[in-house]
Amino acid sequence: MILQALVDYYEVLAESERTPKTGWSLAKVSYAIELSGDGEVLQFISLKSEQPRGKKMVLSPREMMVPEQAKRSSGISPNFLCDKADYFLGALLKPEDGMSEAEKHEIEKSNLRSMQCFEASRRLHAELLKECGHPAAKAVVAYYEKWDYQNPWNHENVGENWQDIAASNLVFVFQGAFVHEIEEIKSIWQQKYEASGSEKTAVCLISGKRGPVASLHPSIKGVTGAQSSGASIISFNSDAFCSFGKEQGDNAPTSKYAAFAYGTALNALIADYSRVVRVGDMTIVFWAKCGETAYQDSFQWLLNPQSSESFYSEADLLGMIRQLAEGKKVLFDNTMLDPSMEFYVLGISPNAARLSIRMFQKNSFGKMISNLLEHQERLRIEGQRSSFSIWMLLNETVNPNASDKTPSPQLAGDLLRSVIQNSYYPATLLNGVVLRLRAGDKFSQGKAAILKAYYLKNKNPKVPEEVLGVMLNTESRNTPYVLGRLFALLEQIQDTANPGIKSTIRDKYFNSAAATPAVVFPRLINLAQKHLRKIDGGKRVCLEKQLTELMSLLETEYPAILTLPEQGAFQLGYYHQTKARYQKKDSKQEDSNNE
User: Fold this and answer.
1) 91 three-state secondary structure
2) β-bridge pairing 31-35 and 169-174
3) Contact 473, 467 (CB under 8 A)
4) What's the CA dihedral at 74, 80, 83, 86 to 10 degrees?
């Protein structure tokens, strides 16, 4: 289903000419070699340009449509008219005076392989272009005969850019035109590509049509943590993967067209940085069956609000999202979004030299939007943030002092799946937050939001909905919730009596008060009485009144033990009371400023 959906997406992109057709691929090219009619190198032209990368502008290679690139591992396999520098230039490492014999030997060894790459590229271009009458073809063939591939750095036009050129992809330019874009030469490559199909044919497992079988599947590039040269979703390169003597592509026959199509579509999705979400080690891409990018943009805003940019205000976006969740069509970026449109979400993680599918979801766009909206609604709680991205929630489970702050990959996949499916949150999410609170981490808005959302979705009779509100519920008589509020008030009393105190009751007693109230609270109440004696005037009267009101809400004695869900209610009570306290302080400051 995954590959079939990607093939369908490729066909939509190809129809609108937004992706390469069979036999062609996208490559990042940094320099062009300009040739004269007799094959002399006139100059090296930089194709780099400034492009936004986050908040910065960086020099980036130009993305170009070139003849399909060979999939390489360790062998020598040249590409046609676009390749790495060792295939076009030969030896890349220049020996320097003062090098040791061992260093010189390594350079000679590397250069020997680079010269072999150049020779392979020369043979390929001579074979394909020898009968072409176009002057550009003759210039390329002549170049390979004249170029000093043993000492390329000595050429007068290389200059100071040699190291950059030697690390780049290159193409040829002749009389102002890229050679690989000349129609006569393009047709030569197309004929070569179509004639190079496997002699073996079989019924494709993806399309159901008979065709040449792809022996190797395409490399997928840009997945966080995977090899920079790309990794495969499907590969059969070990005896363990052979069945009944069938090897490589024969094991699970996929047509050459289908392999090209799904690889091209997935690479195009990942290459679109602005529409990719990365959570932990997982790279998440999403697309609508129709291929319109407006679906991706609106979905991403709800999935990852803090990293999404839009011309719309947050209120306008939220209004459109609510209409889509209700099944209504919405105009977004000049595209009419249809809530019934099929929508896909794919999560990929690195796995040695391969890629593993962490999650795949298919549903109507409206349903997925509705599920995400419900998730954000459950997270709403008093504080500065109005929404939370997935990675923000996962970061709340990570030790801030750890050297590796990457969230659990398993939790990342489970959480994203539960959000998109609108199913129960994973228990590991709650456990992660509880562990961080017990370790003494700051009780942030994110942790409180997770507690609230978890118990709203994963209902527990010990945590009634009255304590799961956005803000403080002063009417609730739920004992754990009231005890949490009481603890926050006792902390406020201590802070008022001893401003700037370094170690508070929060640091010493929070976990034990949440677990065994009967042991801890009597001691804290006695301590609070001592603190109150240090406070003068109306502050003391106000705090004593609040303390009396909270104590009156406790209908029973302090419980001996609170269960884990009851501790969740305690923690939410503490958070709500603390936020209400600071909210009052902020409103008083605003009033005084207005005066």
Assistant:
1) coil
2) parallel
3) yes
4) 70
Question: Which percentage of the chain shows pLDDT scores above 70?
Answer: 94
> Which of 476, 478, 581, 567 lies closest to 520 in space, CA to CA?
567
In angstroms, rounded to a whole number, what is the distance separating the alpha carbons of residues 547 and 543? 6
- Going by the DSSP 8-state scheme, the letter that residue 246 receives in this structure is B
For 80-119, what is each residue's pLDDT tens digit? 999 999 999 998 988 887 888 888 889 999 999 999 999 9
Residue 52: name the closest of 228, 267, 273, 310 by CA.
273
Q: Compute the Cα dihedral for 432, 434, 439, 442 and give only its sign.
A: positive
Q: Which helix (H) or strand (E) element contains residue 517?
A: helix 517-533
Q: Which of 330, 328, 368, 260 has the alpha carbon at shortest distance from 26?
A: 260
H-run or E-run covering 190: helix 183-195
Enter the tokens of residue 101: 């014999």
**Domain residue spans in the chain?**
21-196, 203-372, 477-566+575-595
> Which tokens go with 580?
């209400």
**CB contact at 8 A, 362 and 1:** yes
Q: If you average pLDDT over residues 39-44, what whole number do you get?
A: 94
Mean pLDDT (whole number) for 135-164: 90
Asked whether the CA dihedral 155, 161, 167, 169 is positive or negative, the reply is negative
How far CA 513 is from CA of 20, 214, 397, 528, 590, in Å, comes to 63, 64, 22, 15, 34
Task: Give the CA radius of gyration of the chain.
Answer: 32
CA of residue 270 relative to chain centroid, distance: 9
Cα(482)–Cα(21) distance, integer angstroms: 65
